[in-house]
Amino acid sequence: MRIRSIAAASGLLLGASAFVLPAASAQAADHPHSPVTVAHRGASAYAPENTLAAVDAAAKLKIDWVENDVQRTKDGKLIVIHDTTLNRTTNVEEVFPGRAPWKVSDFTLKEIQRLDAGSWFNPKFTGERVPTLKQYMDRVSRNHQKLLLEFKAPELYPNIERETLNELRHQGWLNRQHVKHRLIIQSFSADSVRTTHELRPDVKTGFLGTPAVADLPKFAKFADQINPHFGSVNPEYVAAVKAVRGAHGKPLEVYTWTVDDPAVAVKVAKAGVTGIITNKPDVIRDAVSHKGKPGKPGKNVAARQVGAAA
Predict the structure, then answer these.
(1) What angle do CA 274, 142, 45 make, to 5 degrees?
(2) How far, CA to CA in Å, does 58 sit from each of 67, 164, 191, 290?
(3) Which residues contact 176 (CB under 8 A, 6 or more apart)?
């Protein structure tokens, strides 16, 4: 998820902030619930983001849902990586020093598979690779996990929605059971979410952002979720979102991101969010499920991760 979207979201929220629903606010505060916990880029506080190691780390913590980001290589292969460039989370500058700015779309899969995607986070992950979408899905399936898949910068990759859906179909992820219980597709691009819905109307979709309350019915035509940055979340806005029925006829859900502070998690849970996307899924799960003091966060949250776009 991109940090520049936060500013845009804040502006859009102006329409929502004036939408006051006192009864709904009181209800949210009086009846806190336990939102779904989603491991952001896998359990990325404990293993390098968007790698198989991060998926496994989430599984070891007994986290069902993982989130990832899908992009496409120069030769048309789908891979899982967040940034549209390779230099933050791999050693691409060492392996290919003359290829700045190291855009994902400028490298073939074979070239990307040469890169180390783990040592930047911690030396014990040296040799971890950027996974293909197929490899990622294989691991999620093996771990019996569920997937919140994000199209990252889909405007750079025409037709990536259809290609990704084809891959998911080949992996068995578009059967009734997976579509109903184990898969959500989201994006900051409304066009991408709309395209996904048009191609596979049965698939659950989410829009990343904070549309004004007046615009929610437009998004509800092709989305099942409105997923804002936690800074945009308040009880009034959550209630306004849930008051609208989404593409599948059910109240819109709200998955907020990226929450690593237990106190913030409790706050958004009381506001009524449906899910919380976090780098520290064990900490946040414990905070919102009333299990007492949350566990200590991992020590391997590198500075480059902290500074990365949400």
Answers:
(1) 55
(2) 10, 23, 31, 20
(3) none
Alpha carbons within 13 A on the beta-carbon side of 297: 17
**pLDDT tens for residues 143-174?**
999 999 999 999 999 999 999 999 999 999 99
Whole-angstrom distance, CA of residue 149 vs CA of residue 146: 10
Mean pLDDT, residues 270-284 taken together:
98
Tell me, yes or no, if 82 is annotated catalytic: yes
Q: Would you state the pLDDT for residue 5?
A: 40
Q: What one-letter code names the amino acid at 144?
A: H
Q: Is 40 a catalytic residue?
A: yes
- Residue 209 in contact with residue 227, Cβ under 8 Å? yes
Model pLDDT, residue 30: 37
User: Would you call the peptide bond into 101 cis, given omega within 30 degrees of 0 as the criterion?
Assistant: yes
DSSP letter assigned to residue 144: T
Amino acid (1-letter code) at residue 169: R
Alpha-carbon Rg for the chain, nearest whole angstrom, is: 19
Write the pLDDT tens digit of every residue in 63-98.
Answer: 999 999 999 999 999 999 999 999 999 999 999 999
Model pTM? 0.85
Give the closest residue to 170 by CA, choosing from 132, 222, 207, 224: 132
Kindly name the residue from 40, 178, 197, 229 that is annotated as catalytic.
40
Q: What percent of the chain has pLDDT over 90?
A: 82
Using CA atoms in the order 91, 96, 101, 103, what is the torsion angle rounded to 10 degrees?
A: -80
Give me the catalytic one of 31, 33, 82, 144: 82
Instruction: Give the number of other Cβ atoms within 10 Å of residue 106's Cβ.
Output: 15
- pLDDT classification of 133: cutoffs 50, 70, 90: very high
Q: What is the 3-state secondary structure (H, E, C) of 20-60?
A: CCHHHHHHHHHCCCCCEEEECCCCCCCCCCCCHHHHHHHHH
How many angstroms separate the CA atoms of 265 and 153, rounded?
27
